[in-house]
Amino acid sequence: MHRPSFSTRDPSWTPKPDATDASLVLVVAADGDEDVAAVTETDGVDVRHARDVEAVSKTLADRLVDCVVHAPGSGVPDVLETLRATRDVSATPYVLYARDPGLATVDEVLMQSGTAYVPRRGDDAVERLLSQIRRLTSERGLRQALELRERALDQATVGITVADADEDLVFVNDGFERITGYDADEALGDNCRFLQGGGTDEETVAEIRAAIESEEPISTVIRNYRRDGTPFWNQLEITPVEDGSGTVTHYFGFQKDVTERTELEGRLRDRNERLDEFAEVVSHDLRGPLSVAQGYLEDVEGEQVDAAVHALDRMERLIEDVLTLAREGRSRAKTESVALETAVTRAWRTAKTGDLEVDLGDDPGTVQADPERLQTLFENLFRNVADHAEGATTVRVEATGTGFAVVDDGPGIDPTVADSLFDQGITTHEDGTGFGLAIVATVAEAHGWSVSVGESENGGARFEVDCTGGA
């Protein structure tokens, strides 16, 4: 990974140790050492003792030690031997605490990283020792946090970049190299515009430029090109980073290859457009001759004529339902706050409900919905009651904890169709089209909702719409 040529300033990047956790210090010193006793009595320090090199190695292997303190003396292992034993196991910080260990020994110790020498002289010697322990353990924590951050950046599946205030790249992770095909050496010092090409949308580029100039974050999808020239759809997020004075110094960028998803969305849009066109053509081509046939039958009487009129009326309903189903399933609904009472009232006026009555009870509240599609949902639920709930007299619309419910006092759901109720073409009525509840399910899906059916308290049907999507 290429390491960034900038300094991080945000301390929240670094994990904070729990202030209540004591630092575990392994002391290699003679028994009865008074300075060691003083360290042991210090708040925030948990001291463990090692009498020989083997004990040092074993303790470091078994425990997460924050610092090793070596105070040479009678019966205490050699300094360099102890340091080697420490480094053979881990990079744990090492402090030599001695009166006069010799210049060569001090040099040998300080040549190693994460080490310090504290002369054992003066009344403040213990305080200086504690200060070095705190410094080394803090530096080790920071170093480990940086190493973890570097590993996380490189192992991330998304591309991560950092650009300076002039928008030149100063850092790219391995994910960026994998997605784009550009090595870090090729990308660094350049503007990320090298990913653009002939098929890159100029309006999207202008939106990105405007966001950067206004120092605002932006999230968009743009067509970019890999090093080998192959195009890909890049879900791009750019966030400005400020210094302590509020000046933008860098831009963080996140790239994700969403080519498969974007192409699938495009195919779905094309398919929905073709379905819309097909539905319109079929509707137009069928309604023409249908209107002619109905016109010829208007002034003709007879039992067979009545049957023909009935069949033509059913064909007209079928055409209308097919067209509605195609329209409702074409895209995600654009929502706004809609009063359920308003939607129910409008749907009740347009649906053919016969002698049924509607009961709104207490204020059912509002939902986030497309007003026209919500009305279509209610129209089809009301029509379903009128057509299939024999003996029903009332339809009640009520709020639920997650949405709303439409409840009737009819005979309930026919168990033979209960499992396929929302499928297209399923009906128990000889004049039914089998599309009404399929339209209900399609409208719900377009909103991200779920719809289910059960039995009401009085044995009728209860259609419940979960506006949270079942989350």
UniProtKB/TrEMBL annotation:
- In short, the EC number is 2.7.13.3
**Residue ranges constituting the PAC domain according to the UniProt record:** 218-270
Coiled-coil ranges per UniProt = none
Family annotation (SMART domains): HATPase_c, HisKA, PAC, PAS
> Which UniProt keywords are given for this protein, alphabetically ordered?
Kinase, Phosphoprotein, Transferase, Two-component regulatory system
Domain (PAS): residue spans on this chain: 145-191
Its UniProt entry gives the catalysed reaction(s) as: ATP + protein L-histidine = ADP + protein N-phospho-L-histidine
Query: What Pfam family does this protein match (any one)?
Result: PAS_9
**MF annotations from Gene Ontology:** phosphorelay sensor kinase activity
Q: Which CDD domains match?
A: HisKA, PAS
PANTHER family reported in the protein's UniProt record = HISTIDINE KINASE 1, TWO-COMPONENT HISTIDINE KINASE
Q: What is this protein called?
A: histidine kinase
Where the record annotates domain Histidine kinase, the positions are 281-465
Sorted alphabetically, which PROSITE patterns does this protein's record hold? HIS_KIN, PAC, PAS
Q: Which EC class is this protein assigned?
A: transferase
Q: Does the keyword Phosphoprotein apply?
A: yes
